[in-house]
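Need tokens for this chain, all 115 residues.
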Amino acid sequence: MMGKVRNLKWTIVYVVFSLFILATAVGAQSNSTKEPVKKEEAPLTLITATPEEGFQLAVKLSRKGVTTTQKDKNVLFMLREVYSRDPNALIACSQVIAINFQTVAAANNYWRDAK
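Here are the structure tokens for all 115 residues:
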């Protein structure tokens, strides 16, 4: 009788383990066939409600330009340490933000129509 119980336990362990492996394989297969879930993105626009929002957009555009240009994150973070201590580099960053802000402001008619 004890041998039958031991065999039954091992059979149950084997079945549970097999089901786990099967479920994992099915889950992996179903995940690989699904398209990644994308957040619904707002359409790209330069239009903002206020000059403050426009400035934040200018900063975002400037930062995105840097990360688009330098795709290697390790190099990007290494260079950040260098330019964050260089006054000329910081002035250049400010100029890029200012140019982007001019673009956003012009697109918003300099917020003259804001109420």
